[in-house]
Amino acid sequence: MEIDEIKEIDKTVKSWLRESRDNVLRKIDTRLTVNTKTSRKDLVTNIDKQNEQFLVSKIRDFDPESRILGEEGFGDKVVSTEGQVWIVDPIDGTMNFVKQRNHFAIMIALYVDGEGVLGYILDVIGNRLLSGGPALGVFDNGHPLAEVVDTPLSNGLIGLSGPLVLHNTFNMVDIAQKSLGMRIYGSAGIDIISVLRGELVGYISYLKPWDFGAGRILCDVAGLEMTTIDGKQLGVLSSEPVLLATRNAHRDILTIVSQ
């Protein structure tokens, strides 16, 4: 894909995100229709569904030959990464959205033949957009992202999944204790933004493609490591425990996981 085409896509997606954010904020204080999916802690609202339908319609009009993987099922059944594949998470952190009206994100990613081209993570309430890709670099609200310091686990805060810590899965308690402290934000997008901005040295959680699709692109360009929990390559369409960290913290965490 040529750079001029990538720049045009980037400009277009940012306009979708601005409109999408405005749509969500207009409805955030209205009465929500809340349903459960796999459990009482796995929620979906009418706003999740409406926002995904909005974004899917924008992608369909702009790129009709592509396929779309959306969390709420308004896209396509995507079983391979051939061609152009968009990945959409209309509200990442729905529990936060419902209970706090804060700490949630909108995420969009574009892959071509399995290679990340563009990724976007928008902190809706904070109005902070992390965006970019291999051809453009990574930007924080339009400014080049500062270089991420390669901090070891012992010198930084770590974002962890609550259930993984509670059950001490993959030695999560030891990982938390070796860090300066753990944080649980309840939104993959918010955690990934925090790692990209150097506020966390890493993040570990069970993630699905719409949770990590955009972040995988941005973190790769920023020089961070995003792998499976045992350090293997993370497939674009995989659903499993994911480890994101600085290179030093990634190495530290893999040592603890393997014990």
UniProtKB/TrEMBL annotation:
Binding site for Mg(2+): E71, D89, I91, D92, D211
Entry keyword S-adenosyl-L-methionine: no
Named cofactor requirement(s): Mg(2+)
Top-rank taxon, per record: Bacteria
UniProtKB keywords: Hydrolase, Magnesium, Metal-binding
Pfam family, one: Inositol_P
Transmembrane segment boundaries: none
GO term, biological process aspect, one: inositol metabolic process
InterPro entries in the record: Inositol_monoP_metal-BS, Inositol_monophosphatase-like
GO molecular function, one term: metal ion binding
Protein name: Inositol-phosphate phosphatase
